[in-house]
Amino acid sequence: MTSGPSPGVDGALLAEVANKADLVWVEIPGQPARAMWHVWHDGAITLVTGGLEQPDPGFAEGEAVLLILRSKDKATRVLTVRAAASKVLPTSPEWAEAAQALHPQRLNQSDGEAQPERWRTESTLWTLRALGEVVEGPGRMSDESHRAEPIPSDATTSMRHPFHAGKATKRRR
Fold it and tell me: Global pTM?
């Protein structure tokens, strides 16, 4: 397995932004971008999908996706790169290393230390390794707004919100 991004990608910038970000936005061709929690491991974005974890957006082995990395403090785009998705096989030594990197970063673990074994049976670990093409980056940001239509949903508000005039009042005693 090759470690680090391909030539053409500023590896130091990619590593720094990916390490600091809680989420990375992943855009699969023909689908809206999705926010996914991840870790930066072995020079690539590593994430877990399926089962009780985040939904699998439909990655295909070797498929090119867009990684959109945002600044943690300002929530602005810093870098957008093309990346190749590859599945980490549960029988490979890389799987154990990836699971060991992901496990402590998973918030609200439902099964504690048994979590990696649950991942082995019901989830899929993926690496998203940057290819040589930087779509957007410092000095190369597009003027496009990047606004997207909301994803259709059946969710509704069950009742009217209560009326509030100004700030909520507190009784002082």
Answer: 0.76
